[in-house]
Amino acid sequence: MKSSPEREDVSSNLENVGNPTMTPIMTTGQGKNSYVRNSNAQAAFMDRVFDSGQLFTSIDGMEILRDGTDLVRVADFGCSSSPNTIRNVETVLRRMNGRTSGRSAACQLYQVFFQGLHETDFNTLFRLFKTVSANYADNLSVDNKLKYFTAAVPGSCYDRLFPPASLHFVMSTFTLMWVSKVCPHLPSSPCRRIISFASRATMDAYREQANTDLRSFLNARAVEMVTGGVMNLVFGVRRDYYPYYVCPTDAAVEEVWDEMVSEGLVEAKLRESFETFAYFHHLKDVEEILSDYSPLFEIHHQEVLPFFTYPSGMTAREQCTRYVSMHRGVFSTIFEGHFGRDITEMFWEMYEKKVFRGFSDGTIVDREESTYLFLVLVASRK
Q1: Number of domains observed in the structure of the chain
Q2: For 256-295, how does the pLDDT look when each residue is reduced to its tens digit (9 = 90+)?
Q3: What is the CATH number of the domain that holds 130?
């Protein structure tokens, strides 16, 4: 087993994420490409996670909610600047509030830390409190009282960010499939911008970095969490290692960039210099890492779920819309940082047309067994 931290171990040597124009953050602001407007699919997925009840079962079993703890501290690592962030945290707090004993729930104090990279759009996130949060005075009602203290914590979630034994509940959703940095010694390849088309050597480099990052995350949280604290993680995984496949529209992404280069809209060198930070973990790697950390964390629930649901009768337009919307919200700021706003807008227009055409003529097929898969993990600190 790899060495695990004691409480006093505060070491972390990872470098800062990316460079100023390539930091992997969700699309900022509240415009048409923003994560605020294009994260309904992520919200729907988390609704399914909460509805399953597995997380609530672990929350219900938290002794700290019954032993008179004055202040419960909650941290959302790698948070986004969208209503989802607020709603997810408040869903957890409401469950905790309903299980607090020995005092009135109205007297229980909560402190919530919204953690993200330095470039995260915290301004948009906190503006959303005025319209979304039950913590905002104007939104309080007799039946919906929820009061908690908030703070933003900039930095990398792969680093130590909190004092030892200070966090009671930790969550991280849709974050841990982003590597902290792209290896500077990646093999030269014309396919590094879309990892699905990368060489095995490139895949191995991403794998090494992703596994290092996941261990760093678990090391840090093991020090920061109290004994009995609960952790909820949601991140992308894939069952097969190589070739890398997570999304039925990956080929469309590659084809659009090819077309933009051939039409002279994008310089080939600019296109080739784009490197992705997104990497869906190989499920077997994750399971091996979790096994190494079994002395520190007890797994209560572990499940792999498809990102989307598949109601019958979906039209090609509906299939297209949910993929394009999700990708706009996730990648627009990243693309704009590398290619510029105009090229990014042209890309989205061409991509939407190609994806719609693919779903219409059957050249793109979206099935539950062949789309994005996410690991839902609930664990507690031993």
Answers
A1: 1
A2: 999 999 999 999 999 988 888 999 999 999 999 999 999 9
A3: 3.40.50.150
